[in-house]
Structure formats: C-alpha cells, structure tokens
C-alpha cells in the first residue's frame, strides 16, 4: 500500500504542478451518505483556508446548492468563518447537509408522461463556480461523490477530494474517516446482544452496513466475538451457518451471534435489494431478516434479527476518526496551496499523501481473504458460511 500511494502521489504532483493558480475563494461540499468526522474536515479546511487569506464557502446538500439555489434562503452557499466552525469537531452529521440523490452527471428529470430521463448538469456546476468566483472545490465523499469530482476535474474545475465512507472501501487509502466510529458502535451493540441472546438461548442475527465490502462486518464481528460472519466477499451456504449454531448447542453453548453485511449473498442467490431509484445507488437491506428466518427453520432454535442501519452513521466520531478528519482537511488545503488538482488525499501511515482521483475511484477495496484479520477469525473458529466448523 505504502509503495503504491507514494508513487501515485509523486505522479499526481508531477503532473499538476507548475505555475500555481491564484486562490481567492474555495468551496466545500459533502455528498453521499453522512459519516462521523465530516464536520471535523469542514473545520480544518475552513481554518486552513482562512489562515491563507482565502474566502471559504460551503455548498448546500452536495451540489444542490449550486444547481438549485432558488430552493435555499441563503442561495445555496454558506459563508464559512472561524465562528461558524467553532466547536463542530465532535459533532456527527454535516453542517452543510448532504444527499445521495441527484447525481449531477445523471440528474433525473421528470418528463410530461411521468417517466424520467437523466441529463448531465456538470457544466452548470462549473458555470456556477465561476459566477461565485470559486477557484477550487474540496469534495468530501465516497466512491460515487469522488467519481463525480473526477468528472468535474476533467471538465476544468479545480478539485481536491477527501475520502469519506463508513464502508472503508476506497482502494487508495488505508482508512476512511467514519469507519472506525461505525465499527466501534457495531461492536458495542454486539457486546450488548450477547447478554440477551444468552439469557433467552437465542440466535441473534445482526445486519450491518458496508454495501459491497465486508469491512464493518468483519472488524466488528471479530472484535465482538461473533460466531459467524457473512460478508459480500464470500458467498455463504446457510446450511453451514446452521450447522455452526447446532454445534454450539451440542457443546453446551445455547446461543449464537451471527453478523451479516447488508451486501452478503448466498451461494445460489443474489444480494437483497430493497429498492432501485433513478439517480442513486441501489438500496441494500433485508438480508438479516432472511438469514434469521432460515436459521430458525433449519435449527428449530428461536432466532431474532437486529438491523443497526443508520445508527452506524450517526453520533460522535471516535478519536481516530476526528484526528484523521482533521488531518485530511488540513492536507486538502496544503494540496491546493501547492498547486495540486484532480487528486485525493490519502492515509499512508504515518503520513497523508496524494493520489489521482481517477486511480482512487477505479476499483473498490474489498476484504482480502488472505488478510491477517481473516486468518485470525478462522483461527478463532468463526464461521463464514463456506466451510463446515471443525
């Protein structure tokens, strides 16, 4: 990882340096799902920009503040000052608002017959930035938001990206802020569920977020002493999971904890999709309920399911996520000052470096099946639904 990021950072720096464009005003936007640490990034970028004599503004709700300014009393842009960002480091959510609808590259427009078509509104964003004398945008988001940022960069907008997602699935950074907070919360929930599961001798199935990557499920499941963990990277056989819970009963352990990532899928089936809407990613969910029903039928043991859902996105960021967010925000400002463009700041311990946005969004970072955490989980006897318990 370190070698890849360093070479990418060097390539990005070499390709974008030269005469540094003058900066007078920068804008910050937050897009996609919220994550603990967003406000800390906003604070770091704001303070860093003001210290350099730049004006700093925030764009409402992703790019909606630029595309639909008439919907906002303040015109869709928020002046960011030292006063407006004071005391927000520890707050969850985002003071700018966010959205995972209305991708500006494929913006849904309703037709007269009630159907929808998509249009590319990216040029409107660039024109709006010019209208408001915005010289650069710090785009904070996950793979979807940063892919949009890369497209805007290709069309002439000066952009620096900051990686944000509780899913931890961006390939060119060791960690994304929000992930540690989500895992910590999920682990605490598993701790609490152990006592009630044991008291009632139940199987407890816990569905966690993560979309197509199993990082939250794996890390929380191992830390929270789960008996089985189902992740998108390993299609599971429900019969094997059921045998794991039956084996525990035979050993005198009358309860089991099963962690299921929302994107997990059976060997002979598909992911559980709740809905698909034009202009946004498909909504996953429901797999926890399905697994619970199947386990109760196969084992005869009372089973309950819990969906942690958006609880994983909310609340106060952990110390790790706060510090990482502040480091990312400060690095984004330094990158702009250095003349960088079309890059994402990335964690490569012990430093924060730069990687091209295009490379950062090229592929998803899934759980390596030969990773030490996976090996540890198997050594602990955790079932992944692909091997019968020994």
Q: In summary, what is this structure?
A:
Helix content is 37%, strand content 18%. With 390 residues, it is an alpha/beta fold.
Individual helix count = 12
CATH class of the largest domain: Alpha Beta
Which percent range fits the helix content? 25-40%
Q: Based on DSSP secondary structure assignment, what is the total number of beta strands? A: 15
Q: Write out the strand line-up for the largest beta sheet, numbering strands in chain order.
A: 3-2-1-6-7-14-15
| Shape annotation | elongated
Q: CATH architecture of the largest domain, please?
A: 3-Layer(aba) Sandwich
β-strand amount: 15-25%
Q: How many discrete structural domains?
A: 2
CATH-defined topology of the largest domain: Rossmann fold
Rounded mean pLDDT score = 91
Termini Cα gap: 34 Å
What is the succession of H and E elements?
Answer: HEHEHEEEHEHEHEHEHEEEHEHEEHH
Query: Could you say which structural class the secondary elements and strand pairing correspond to?
Result: alpha/beta
Instruction: Please state the CA-atom Rg, rounded to the nearest Å.
Output: 22 Å
Low-confidence stretches: 1-18
How would a textbook summarize the main sheet?
7 strands, mixed
Describe, in plain words, how this protein is organized in 3D.
This protein is of the alpha/beta class and 390 residues long. It folds into two domains: 2-177 and 317-360, Rossmann fold (3-Layer(aba) Sandwich); 182-313, Rossmann fold, CATH 3.40.50. Helix content is 37%, strand content 18%. It contains twelve helices and 15 strands. It has helices at 2-16, 38-51, 64-67, 122-131, 143-154, 179-200, 215-223, 238-250, 287-299, 319-338, 357-360, 372-379, and strands at residues 25-30, 55-59, 77-79, 107-110, 116-119, 136-141, 159-163, 203-208, 228-230, 256-261, 273-275, 283-284, 303-307, 343-348, 351-356. A seven-stranded mixed β-sheet has the order 3-2-1-6-7-14-15, with helices on both faces. Strands 9-10-8-13 form a four-stranded parallel β-sheet, with helices on both faces. The protein has a two-stranded antiparallel sheet with strand order 4-5. Strand 14 and strand 15 (351-356) form a beta hairpin. Helix 2 packs parallel to helix 10, helix 6 (179-200) packs across helix 7 and helix 8 packs across helix 9 (287-299). It is elongated, with a radius of gyration of 22 Å. Mean pLDDT is 91; it is low at 1-18.
